Structures are given as C-alpha cells and as structure tokens.
Amino acid sequence: MSRAASDQLGADENPGSEAMRERAYRQLRHMLILQQIPAGKRLREAEWTARLKVNRSALREAFARLEAQGLIEAGPKTGYVVPTLDRHSIREILAVRIMLETGAIEIVCTCGLNTPQHLQPMRDACDQMERLASEGDIIQVAEADWQFHDALVDASRNRRLRSVYHHAPLPLIIPEQTTGPEWEVAVRQTVREHRAILDAILAGKPDEAIRLLRSHISERSMSLTQA
Questions:
Q1: What predicted TM-score, i.e. pTM, was given to this entire model?
Q2: N or C terminus of the chain: which is more exposed, having fewer CB within 10 Å?
Q3: Exposure pattern of 85-102 as b/e (b: 16+ CB <10 Å)?
C-alpha cells in the first residue's frame, strides 16, 4: 500500500475524522428524507453509533447539523427526536419544493441544459420507479421518487440552488397507504406525471413543465392535508 493510501486509510479510521462525520450525517439525512425513521422516534446514541459504525463525536456533530436543518428536534429532556409532520408543515415543505424545482426548470430550459444526455438521470429514476411499482417496496420506490426531483435540481448546475435544496429540511411526503393494488396504481400515476414533466422540459416548454410540476406536487398536498 502506498503512503498516500495508508494516510487516507488512517484518516478515515481516525475517531474524529471528517470522513466519519460526513458519513454519519449523509446516511442519517438520507434516511430522514425517505422517512425510514418513524416520526416521534427518539434517536439513541448507542443505537446509532452501532448502526452507522461511527463514534459518538461524529454522531453528535451529525445530529447538530440535522437539527439546524429542521430534520430532527431536541428532545424534551435529552437527545433528539424525529419531528411529527402536521398539515401546516407538509404545506410548507411542498411550497418550498415547488419554488425551488420550478426555478430549476427555468434554468435548465433557459441555459440549454434540456438535452436527453444531460437529463438522463431523471429518465433513469422514472424507469427505476416503474420497475419497482409492482414489487411493493415503499423505501425503494420513495428513493426513486426522490432521485427524480433531486436530479431535476442537479440538472440546473446552479451551485447555490442545489445547496439550498440539498440542505433544506424537505423530507418526502409519503402517503399512509403503501401496499396493495391502489398503491401500485398511485405509483404508476406518479411515474406518468414524472415522464410528462421530463418530456416538457426536453421539448423546451418550461411553462408547461412548471404547470405539470405544480399540479403534481399540489395534488399530493391536497390528498395529504385535507381535513
């Protein structure tokens, strides 16, 4: 092993290493965005240091960053908990997503970034979600859903827009029913809406793509926030 490789290995194994802190943060954030950790659950240090294979210092720094982003909250006594999303919180999350994602559409079309090659990650996410529709794996479907919207923002190549989107507390809003024929129908409808948005962007029709995106996100908002 080269000295450079050895030094890198040592840095990664160092209990206080930046690599470990970043890994803890990214893995936890990913799980929170996909709602893989139930709302209201207390995040116990012993459990998560073992699950993520990191030390307490790295985990605490990850917790602090996630709290600053609103993805977790300080517990009533000690530690952190996953917040419960009420109707108002859901509306806020979806409103911010609309603002940021429609901005990405405008940039992509205005800057000539709406080429099939550049937007291939969006198409890949559609294809993956369609393949998963009949398998009933809510986590993988949610991941493909998230990847589509994330790829849209990344396609803008706007560093600041991407930073805001990636660091904002914007978990996916997952419907309560996640199994059965109705769920599969809903997933396939989501795929059709994703493809329609993508086709409008590729055709250089930002107004149409924005209208479709607003409808896509607003429909989810209505179904989840109605009294």
A1: 0.78
A2: C
A3: beeebbeebbeebbebbb
